[in-house]
Amino acid sequence: MNEQLDILAFGAHADDVEIGMGGTIAKYTSCGKKVGICDLTRAELSSNGTVEGRLAEAKRAAERLGVKVRENLNLSDRGLFLSEQSIQEVVALIRKYRPKLVCTPYHLDRHPDHGNCTKIVEEAFFSAGIRKLKTAHQYAPYRPNKLIYYMINGFHKPDFVIDISDFMELKLASLTAYESQFQRGPETVETPLVNDYLESVEARERLFGKEVGVKYAEGFITKTPILLNRDLLGEHE
């Protein structure tokens, strides 16, 4: 039987999850939580890098964050649309790892694949718990406790933030693992990612942190309320 995960984060491409919530992942793995990442595509249409190189970079990034498992569903880059196949692939992964929490990109983003990834994950999140829904992978029905949304390219008002002040360096280390995406080379194609992108990500997390009185924070959005058992008085745990 596969080991249950505490958190399973989905992204359209390798580096999406790290951009949005790499610090949060590092924070949770540092205290023993089991985290997994699933990239829906191999980013085969990316302007820079190769499929093989991107897979190796994703492996290095996951290791730096302490991620337990990283999977790739090998769906078509720029072909992430709601289909029975795409939904069932994500359903199978949710049932396989039985995470308590599922994370996916916030749908308002300049890249259509990010929003399309989330449509698939939302459908699968619900369908994974349907007993009569069968997939090619015969895992037992299971529905996680909660679905939350992280930001990739956007800067939106978060419903809650997580203090990553002690883990910002690890977040940036996971992103610099993607040399093909964020560093210039002799054959680099001009994209937003090679034009001070990491600096803008750091600035965003600094601004979110300033809102709550810490150095860095990552922002998240949720469609359902967050239950607080502690910290109602603004005291940091």
From TrEMBL:
One of its GO terms (molecular function) is hydrolase activity, acting on carbon-nitrogen (but not peptide) bonds, in linear amides. It comes from the Bacteria. GO terms for biological process: bacillithiol biosynthetic process. SUPFAM superfamilies: LmbE-like (SSF102588). This is N-acetyl-alpha-D-glucosaminyl L-malate deacetylase 1. It comes from Robertmurraya siralis. Its cofactor is Zn(2+). Pfam families: PIG-L.
